[in-house]
Amino acid sequence: MSFQNPVFIPGPTNIPESLRKACDMPTIDHRSPLFGQILHPAREGVRKVLKSESAEVFIFPSTGTGGWETALTNTLSAGDKILAARNGMFSHRWIDMCQRHGLDVKVVETPWGEGLPADRYEEILTADTNHDIKAVLATHNETATGVKSDIAAVRRALDSAGHPALLFVDGVSSIASMDFRMDEWGVDVAVTGSQKGFMLTAGLAIVGFSAKAMATTKTAKLPRTFFDVHDMAKGYAANAYPYTPAVGLLNGLNEACAILLNEGLDNVFARHTRIAEGVRAAVGAWGLELCAANPSVFSDTVSAIKTPEGFNATDIVTHAAEKYGVAFGVGLGEVAGKVFRIGHLGSLTDVMALSGIATAEMCMVDLGLDIKLGSGVAAAQDFYRGNTATAQKDAA
User: Residues 170, 64: contact at Cβ < 8 Å?
Assistant: First the structure.
């Protein structure tokens, strides 16, 4: 690999120089008012990115997986019933976590490549007249398959069924890159991490709780210590943590939120859509298809690209790393060896995306796939030339 090349994995993502500098800071007393000047603006910045007026934001030294555990352990008790669809590796892992915590999960098996089945959710929730289901899990963007799901439709399913279950959303590879509306969609717990849309290294689990979710924390009985939101809230009130925080990363998060909000969230989302469309244009020019079943579920942060039957897609990733020093994502779970993934989120521009498209194209030609060198690059160039963003200069 080369430190000079951008990465094209779906996280961790490329880190802007200003964020690297923000994380590189002297040691301070993390129980002093000075730390509060980092902590509280960072939490408020996250709240704005979530598009929430009232969410309680908690930031743990962890990753998105720790955010999943925070959502479960603070709101549920052993034996509680959960509704979830399995449509990719990350929804599968969250389901596995629920089962390990002694939760009773109703799993809706969904083909990998399709979005969450909101209609099936509504049927199950409507039939649950005793309201035994306590929470609904929803993976907004399935990173393994490049599939986004309609969270507003999941909320409508809950409302149409008249069901009081909590709505938990994994937004790890969507929040800060794709439109996310915590309040409007009635999300009770939103989970993300520092290493994707926020353009930092891994190390922070970022979680937003609604007032309804906070109310359930008073009766939830699953064990929790490190991820206890009440301990964290007490620490925040005193400009501190219940243990040692990742001060440099929190300073970086504060700066990351400022960068995103200065660009304008709508501009951030439009930039991701534009870059993704260029990648998709390249895929079409190569004569290949995405794992995502149709355009309505195409992700704007990662494309999982299917290779021809009998070809090991992982070879593209290995070859790119060894010959060109560039990182792409391998296929995971059911699609391992069948797809390779191009991450196009975070600190990325059209020009950077073109370098990733060109490298993927060279690898496929090197490995003998029937692809015309330059075809995907040309298709992406045509798209980017016709769809430049007026805000791009400001974003830079």
Answer: yes
